[in-house]
Amino acid sequence: MPFINIKITDDNVTSEQKQQLIQGVTQVMVDVLGKNPERTFVVIDEVNTDNWGIGGESITSRRQQGK
Amino acid sequence: MPFINIKITDDNVTSEQKQQLIQGVTQVMVDVLGKNPERTFVVIDEVNTDNWGIGGESITSRRQQGK
Amino acid sequence: MPFINIKITDDNVTSEQKQQLIQGVTQVMVDVLGKNPERTFVVIDEVNTDNWGIGGESITSRRQQGK
Amino acid sequence: MPFINIKITDDNVTSEQKQQLIQGVTQVMVDVLGKNPERTFVVIDEVNTDNWGIGGESITSRRQQGK
Amino acid sequence: MPFINIKITDDNVTSEQKQQLIQGVTQVMVDVLGKNPERTFVVIDEVNTDNWGIGGESITSRRQQGK
Amino acid sequence: MPFINIKITDDNVTSEQKQQLIQGVTQVMVDVLGKNPERTFVVIDEVNTDNWGIGGESITSRRQQGK
């Protein structure tokens, strides 16, 4: 009964890519732990780059500086 | 001092329904554990059906297939 | 397909109380949104009072002060 | 390698304020635990006031009542 | 800069299996979104079966009933 | 009404350090957003180094390799 939450920046991720993320991480649960995929939930959170920080700066700011 | 996070799909949940969710889960904390409702936080996350997976597929895809 | 995460302090919550929390919040999802309980997950996190803060202090410290 | 998730109501928080939140909490990790800021992630979630409850009511409802 | 949180029941998952979970989900981020693995964090939460509910019951209780 | 969740590795963080983390991040909320500290919750999760991955490896494994 795994629950997986994926947080990524909101960089125009397509529905197809989201499908691949869901399929991929679910398969890892099946392969490694033998989990039932019908009992495996995946939730993807897309986060604005203003709202994600690293190194004490937002991703928006880091990208403007070419980091 | 409970904190409750509810994740649901974004299926046109009304403000009235959100009020009922907040009221209901807060009451459970009061009834079962004697918690102070003024110190009980509830946060509802509404998740796009493209971003919620089960059985290795998005909810969007499952609904298209009538699952 | 709701997912509910309940965070509470680790104050000797019994298995019976956890059952009541799980039963209660699941019922709220059924009553308010018509959700399928077999697709409703609840995860309870019990947090040490050293690790929970409010008002800029840990709960441990607040209790020592009679707050 | 800390990960910090900040949940606040979506009250027109500016990009500048988000930068200050990210900078501030990252600095706390550096000052208290000597963490590497380049390995410190901060994610800010802005939550609609309909979706945040306290005292069994939404923040929207509480503000309408002047609470 | 993905952050992935995996919640599973605490069923004697080995260090080797945890390594495989971490390796597997990180690779999905690389393959699908081209993410930098050195900027991909994975956190595994192991949850006691008393603290995980489905169908309004704890996993502990469901297992006792042979569900 | 902020809620802040801090995830760190379980490296013998002392109660005093936890107090400083709680005090520090709460003060950031007060300084930047004018939030009421009595309505600001902080929850610290200490994560075993087997359960935290970066670069596709657990922290335990990386430390053994001197990374």
Would you state the CATH class of chain A?
Answer: Alpha Beta
The count of helical stretches of chain A stands at 2
* Subunit arrangement of the protein: homohexamer
- Please tell me the CATH architecture of chain A by its name: 2-Layer Sandwich
Roughly how many Å apart are the termini of chain A?
39 Å
Protein name (chains A, B, C, D, E, F): Tautomerase
Family (chains A, B, C, D, E, F): Belongs to the 4-oxalocrotonate tautomerase family.
Domain 4-oxalocrotonate tautomerase-like (chains A, B, C, D, E, F): 2-61
GO molecular function, one term (chains A, B, C, D, E, F): isomerase activity
Overview in brief:
The structure is a homohexamer of 67-residue chains. Chain A is an alpha+beta fold.
Write up this protein.
- Chains A, B, C, D, E, F: One of its GO terms (molecular function) is isomerase activity.
- Chains A, B, C, D, E, F: InterPro entries: 4-OT (IPR018191), 4-OT-like_dom (IPR004370), Tautomerase/MIF_sf (IPR014347).
- The structure is a homohexamer of 67-residue chains.
- Chain A has 67 residues and is of the alpha+beta class.
- The first copy, chain A, is built from 2 helices and 4 strands, in the order βαβββα.
- The A-C interface holds A 1, 3, 41, 43 and C 1, 3, 41, 43.
- Strand 2 (41-47) of chain A pairs antiparallel with strand 3 (52-54) of chain B.
Which descriptors apply to this entry?
homohexamer, 67 residues, alpha+beta, Macrophage Migration Inhibitory Factor, two-stranded antiparallel ribbon, 2 helices, 4 strands, elongated, Tautomerase (chains A, B, C, D, E, F), isomerase activity (chains A, B, C, D, E, F), EC 5.3.2.- (chains A, B, C, D, E, F)
